[in-house]
Specification:
It comes from Prevotella fusca JCM 17724. By secondary structure, the chain is an all-alpha fold. The chain has twelve helices and four strands. The strands form two sheets. Strands 1-4 form a two-stranded antiparallel ribbon. Strands 2-3 form a two-stranded antiparallel ribbon. The radius of gyration is 19 Å and the shape is globular.
Length: about 300
């Protein structure tokens, strides 16, 4: 048991550090290719922070532990909507952009509802996964188109100031080192989590919804809380909601097309909580386009209650 817990902890450290190195290297390469800042942010950085979820879910599915793969995504999204947004609002009331309330949150809600419907028959087949991935491409097109319009209106992209560019060879090294750490760390994480679940008699689904989801969501939690403390509430909630859309549509889309997933331990309650968490954030966002501290406390309390019911 001690060895398996060490596997989990080592896996978390490797996955988070690897995602950071991969993102640094990829951003440096993109900047050398003169890619606009908003394109880097919406693609490379967004995908980089979701790499832990992607690697853990893909390797879990390939190993035949589908409940761990899907539980990781559902748990991460509940974690993002309830705990991350809740804690960030407790740190500082969050101002929500109109575009987020009118486009991003509804898109996240639609993605969550579609996943709930697809899971009712107990599996995510290749057709389901292809539909999810097609929706992801549509979302990316809409987002990039909107960002281009905003960029054109604002003048152009902002250049990094006082920042020495990373050497090309070093950025390539970081990309490969990051990928290696992600793959190796994910393998350790999944192996340790599966063994702990077996030893404790806890289902893979519950482990995925709690330990694995919390571990892979650490980058989003850290980013959102720091952003809220600095008064950048748009980044905080955008990071959490953007991660939710990417998790369902891109990660489950790609994973499901590679290997269909059978679900056993994921319940209707878990799927319903996924939808309810987004609905709560959406409702609170409508109140003067702000999420107040008491609303953040409600979101956090709902998350604690849900985790308590699981355990």
């Amino acid at each position: 048991m001690i060895l398996n817990v060490l596997f989990i902890l080592t896996g978390i450290v490797l996955v988070l550090w690897g995602a950071d190195r991969l993102t640094d290297g990829a951003v440096a390469v993109a900047e050398k290719m003169k890619m606009p800042q908003f394109v880097i942010g919406l693609t490379i950085v967004a995908m980089g922070t979701s790499m832990p979820e992607f690697c853990v879910s893909l390797i879990s599915a390939l190993r035949g532990t589908s409940d761990l793969a899907v539980g990781n995504i559902i748990g991460s999204n509940i974690f993002n909507a309830l705990l991350i947004v809740g804690v960030a609002a407790l740190v500082a009331p969050m101002t929500i952009m109109r575009s987020t309330v009118r486009k991003d949150i509804p898109f996240s809600l639609v993605a969550s509802a579609m996943l709930l419907i697809m899971c009712l028959d107990g599996d995510i087949n290749r057709i389901d996964a292809a539909v999810l991935f097609a929706m992801f491409l549509i979302f990316m097109y809409m987002t990039l188109k909107g960002a281009r319009t905003q960029g054109a209106n604002a003048g152009e992209t902002v250049e990094a100031e006082g920042k020495k560019p990373m050497a090309t060879w070093l950025s390539v090294v970081w990309i490969f080192v990051g990928l290696a750490c992600l793959i190796g760390g994910s393998n350790l994480f999944v192996e340790g989590a599966t063994a702990v679940a077996t030893n404790l008699g806890v289902s893979e689904a519950v482990i995925g919804l709690t330990i694995v989801a919390g571990g892979t969501s650490l980058p989003e939690l850290a980013t959102s809380v720091v952003s809220a403390r600095k008064g950048k509430s748009g980044i905080a909630i955008g990071n959490a909601l953007g991660s939710n859309v990417f998790n369902i549509l891109a990660i489950l889309g790609v994973t499901g097309m590679i290997t269909p997933m059978k679900l056993q331990g994921i319940t209707a309650t878990d799927l319903s909580m996924l939808v309810i968490s987004i609905v709560l954030v959406w409702l609170f966002s409508f109140t003067k386009y702000r999420i107040m501290r008491w609303e953040g406390a409600v979101l956090t309390a709902v998350f604690i209650g849900y985790i308590y019911s699981l355990l």
